[in-house]
């Protein structure tokens, strides 16, 4: 059994920040990630970030992980944490074999989020992808998913991935959204509209057809009660259907360890109950990033920092009060205004915060 101070699970923006703070405070830290590189979702984000300089606005997502040197952190890649037990032990699988059991005094779970899917006829045909999967294929692996794409979902991810498909020379036949307006930022929608891609609001996908893979998609208009408008069905010729219909927290390890979980749709699904320092109902088990509620890389980074500081304090570091206070304020600032409205509503429902 390997023993150390802290296990950080997930090497996206949240986990990297938590690991860096904890190791800077003198703790031995093991950072584990399934991927072959640290960075999580950032590894496929070739676009420039919005927001403030402090949160890497103007920087491409792929360039952000290297801004956090982790010299003192032990890093284990291509490895999955598969269990968290009551005695503080975690089990990790590395490349098909049990690597080790790890016992730590504290844990930060920063496992991020996964894509939601849609039920429709033919959704199991090859050629139906999550938008995030397409982004990984294109931007991380250099592989195009197809030649003619239908994007389902006009939130930021659907719009950004549509634009990146166009940049890669792929035809985006249309972007659909069931809502009466687009959910993403206007700036992203305008870019693809200028390129001639129709954005069809109040529309849905009904079916995908093809012999061995997607050859056609059937789409239809929907009314204000989300029922299909009779006679509005039509077929479009595509070889790829990309679903961008939301993300939900990757929370399996929290369920396994017995953390109290609450269903909050505004935060993406079941999220852990936690105090304002991000400590769950299990002592010294902290959470940060999308696993707490689907949000953005900027807030994931600040949450990672907060979890790292607060866990350091629990484990005996002194003099962190002001830094913790400032970090909580920073999170509040990030969530101000229209953009943070849904998250604020979700957090209010979650309650606690003390
Ligand atoms: C297309 C797209 C565009 C985006 N654009 C922006 C933007 O412009 N600005 C912005 O601020 N945000 C943006 N975001 C959101 C942002 O990327 C996420 O909010 C952020 O990456 C969340 O960080 P995280 O550390 O919580 O999780 P992630 O980045 O998802 O990292 C989680 C990590 O945990 C690992 N993991 C999961 N389970 C295990 C396990 N059991 N064992 C080991 N490892 C595990 C995964 O491999 C992954 O590396 C975008 C997201 C997408 C998909």
Question: What do these coordinates show?
Answer:
It is globular and about 65 Å long. The strands form 5 sheets. Strands 1, 2, 3, 4, 5, 6 and 19 form a 7-stranded mixed β-sheet that branches. A 5-stranded parallel β-sheet has the order 8-15-9-10-11. A 3-stranded antiparallel β-sheet has the order 12-13-14, with no helix packed on it. With 354 residues, the protein is an alpha/beta fold. The model has no long low-confidence stretch (mean pLDDT 94). It has 8 helices and 19 strands. The structure holds flavin-adenine dinucleotide (FAD). The site of flavin-adenine dinucleotide has 36 residues, from helix 1, strand 4, helix 2, helix 3 and helix 6.
Low-confidence stretches: none
Our measurement of the CA-to-CA distance between the termini, rounded to an integer number of angstroms, reads 35 Å
* Overall number of strands: 19
Q: Strand-and-helix sequence, N→C? A: EHEEEEEEEHEHEHEEEEEEHEEEHHH
**How many domains comprise the coordinates?**
2
Q: Structural class from helices and strands?
A: alpha/beta
CATH architecture designation of the largest domain: 3-Layer(bba) Sandwich
- Output the CATH topology of the largest domain: FAD/NAD(P)-binding domain
Please identify the top-level CATH class of the largest domain: Alpha Beta
Sheet-strand content, in percent, reads 25-35%
Total helical elements: 8
Q: Main β-sheet: number of strands, strand sense, barrel status?
A: 7 strands, mixed
In angstroms, what is the radius of gyration? 21 Å
Shape: globular
Supply the CATH superfamily name of the largest domain: FAD/NAD(P)-binding domain
Pfam families: Pyr_redox_2
Organism: Anaerobranca californiensis DSM 14826
Protein name: Sarcosine oxidase subunit alpha
Domain FAD/NAD(P)-binding: 5-304
